[in-house]
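Q: Could you fold this chain for me?
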Amino acid sequence: MSLNVYTDGCCKGNPGRGGFGIVIRYINQDKEISKGFKLTTNSRMELMAVVEAFKNINEKDYSEIKLFTDSKYVALSINNGWLNKWKSNGWRTSTRKPVKNRDLFEEFYDQIHKFKKVDFVWVKGHADNKYNNRCDEIANYAANGSILEDDKNYKNDG
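A: Sure. Below is the predicted structure, expressed as structure tokens.
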């Protein structure tokens, strides 16, 4: 079966408080997931949203996923083949620099390969996509909330 998934991440300052939002569109209902963090980056939240979405989908029930994201960083990492190249290069870019957010990209790689087919669709953020807008709302709500977790693998290099 096929499933549509929407993800978004946000950050209040970059780095700063952050959050992610996910909407998984099942046949009879939508499932929303969000979480807030004390200190992180926007890129980490965009990636974490995708990783957490995949963790919440049973690959035995849904082998084909269409994932919608407003993050070009996330969409291009798949659609341009960067993720596979980075893995084959020992998590280094084409210029031999370490891949930023490696921990999340490694998890991303593992999660995506549980499914038969995953298509990534880039959508314009803050536009006419109802579900992307909902992800943005719940990501911001989580980032502004009183229950914030530590992004344990975030390293503030600044």
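A (continued): The mean pLDDT is 94.
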